[in-house]
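step 3/5: co-fold with zinc ion
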Amino acid sequence: MWVTHMTRDRVYVHPTAFVAEDAVLGPGTKVWHAAQVREGARIGAECILGKGVYVGEGVTIGDRVKIQNGASIFSGAFIEDGVFVGPHVIFTNDRFPRAINADGSLKSEDDWQLGKILVRHGASLGAGSVLIAGVTVGRWALVAAGAVVVRAVPDHGLVAGNPARLVGSVCVCARRLREEREGMLVCDHCGRKYRCDADGSVALA
Ligand SMILES: [Zn+2]
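step 4/5: write tokens
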């Protein structure tokens, strides 16, 4: 059905957007031009879905998530609170994509396994980045624009390239962290300090 603006509690849905009847939108969420939210999707409060965003069946999205124009979030995605999804980011969900079976017949819903992606609290996905099914992006991590993420990204990790490699760590303010001394990282922008353990894990000190 077409849902016109202000038909749900403090929700704005642009008249050109399509939101499935059983999709859940939290209070204060805005859905802009030509966006599509599929059946069973659950979107939290105060989210922004930009122009042309696609949210697949059963996708779960937390509160205060910003999704920029043209991002495609296919089924199997789970996005925690406060995540930034840049323009034209793609969440894939099939690690073995084929249109047809070996005998040439069209593959059906039963002919493949849904791959899952988890993006954790506060993480950011740069413009045009691609997440391959099966990965987890850690809390406050930053995926550079155009990166292709093929393996897990640790909390506060900064990854770039194709395939994406870990090139540093970032602050909650998204600036790169500098090693102050053994096991301690600092943000020169906001002054926050982080502990870096021997296993490479980074957390606020
Ligand atoms: Zn900072």
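step 5/5: annotate
Residues 12-170 form a domain with the UDP N-Acetylglucosamine Acyltransferase; domain 1 fold (CATH 2.160.10.10).
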